[in-house]
Amino acid sequence: MIFYWLFGGIVVTTLTFFLSIDNINLWKSLNASAIVALAYCIALIIFNIKHFPVKRKIILVAVFIVGVFFVFKSWSLAYEQSTWQKQTLLKIRGKISRGVLNVRLNNAMLQVLSNYHSQADKNKKSLKEIYNELIKTDSGFVETLKFSQDDSPMIFNKVLSDTELVFIGQEMAVKGRNPDFANASGKKGMVQVRATLTSKGVKYESEN
Amino acid sequence: MNQKTDNDTNGTKNVSEFSPSFIKLIIALTVFTLVLTFFSGKIYPYVLDFPEVFKGGLILPWLGAMGLTIIQGINEFNGQIFLFGTQSKIYLLVSILLIGIVFPTLMMFGLKNSSQKKNSSSEEKKYVFYPHSVQVILSGIILISIFVSSIIHFYVASKISENMKRNIAIEDNRDNIVSELIDLSNEARQFAILPHELGGGNGSFVLSSKDSKEKKYIELNNLKSFALVKEANYFLAPYKSDSLMTIVAVSKTRCSNPNFSNYNGQKGFVQVVANISKNSASTRVESSSRFNNAAGD
Fold it and tell me: How many Å apart are CA A155 and CA A168, to the nearest integer?
């Protein structure tokens, strides 16, 4: 009899585990198979308890209820804590990305703007000319816009005209608010910001 | 029937405590344990070489899943896509089968057999230990240790979780203040860069005024992003020069140092300061020794 029980329990729990499997979220299959295992244990107790003396019956049921209660508490705490920690890590990562992009893009744009307005009115260079000059001569400016290959954020120059410069800053692996957002790099759903510089100032937008 | 008897010095017969099948089971278990002990290095890699996170947690699968979820978060934090492998899934399945199916079944049938033995009138009843005794003892120890571990985990982890959430909330607030200060700084710098004709300060933080002879500096209310701030109370420090602006943010969240004197006269609140000039801006957290040893603590 014991082998039938073991066989049945193992088959049903394994099936439940694999039918609810998710490569991104392990808790789904773990929770589903735990519910099946709990139902199995209840059935096991109901089936076997009639052979026990009354005192043993009471002790067994009491230990089972208390044990399941604390396993449930510990289980739900582990689930809640790990999910919260994971979400917090991703939130912090998104914040770091946005902060880095904000500082770098604004610093670069304000440097171009500052050089533009520092010129004498006669023979004034355009925003594009100043940008190209800075790229060639100022290593600090190049560093501000350029990310090493190990860094996840990327900056693309979208529009370079005499009166307007548009830069897109994008994270290559950090998800933004909208998972369907089409990024400048062709990816989907990543953090993206846009900085537009005109002679009147910088317009900075968080696009995703 | 197969009962083993010994003669003592007085010639009386002593009944053995162990049934023959119990002794066979104990020998088999001992041999199995010895094989595992001496050949573990050779056996494990071929069976299941569990990663570090699983070790010791085979009977508590939810703690293994917790570790795996956090590892997944760390990987995604580092910009890597993380999918759970076959090994992780097998680990969790084996764990749940052991604690949810195998041990409870061994326990219940062991108890059932022992109850039936007590009621039976057969000769084997005379033994104290039967194979089902091993079933009950082993599975009982494991199930009780699972229950006890759950209780310990629940109480310890609850405390850790509370502290962690409180600390993260403080960090979160501090990061948000820095972010708001960066937005204010960018706008203030832009004001200083723009010429008077475009509504700027033409190299300083002085507002252009044709009528008044008194010098007027830009105020926080003049910055559009000031309308969006919500994480702290912001103060503009008195200008020391035309080209240097200082904004002080005093949070509504308490910092780790209760004696820290805040700019607005309060005590023990997170405080962040931004020094802004036309060409640069810097922010400094003053209320935490982790960020700045010179001030605050």
Answer: 6
